[in-house]
Design a protein that fits this description.
By secondary structure, this protein is mostly helical. It has one domain. It is built from two helices and no strands. The longest helix is centred in the middle third of the chain and has 78 residues. 0% of the residues are buried.
């Protein structure tokens, strides 16, 4: 107690007097309102951060899924090239054994 809602010391506090029970009750309700406002502000901030995180994850996962899909579609061609290279290697190996 002893401070107004603007944060300025009350007249009773400046004069060195004690606050009355009514002042204590009103300062308690002010504190509750301020706490509720702070909780509300924090809740909104957490909600915004959760939304931002979800958007970032969606973006990153979308890009990753596209890349994986691209690699999966390239796999048969890579398998074919690997088989071709293996056959070529075996042919060279056989040719060198003949020499």
């Amino acid at each position: 107690g002893g401070f107004s809602s603007s944060g300025v010391p009350s007249v009773a506090r400046l004069a060195g007097g004690h606050t009355s029970p009514g002042d204590q009750q009103s300062s308690g309700s002010v504190a509750r309102r301020e706490m509720a406002a702070a909780e509300d502000k924090l809740s909104r901030r957490v909600a915004r951060l959760e939304e931002q995180t979800e958007r970032i994850l969606d973006s990153v996962l979308g890009a990753l899924e596209a890349r994986v899909s691209e690699l999966v579609s390239q796999q048969p061609a890579l398998d074919w090239r690997l088989t071709e290279m293996g056959a070529g290697f075996r042919g060279l190996q056989a040719e060198m054994e003949l020499q």
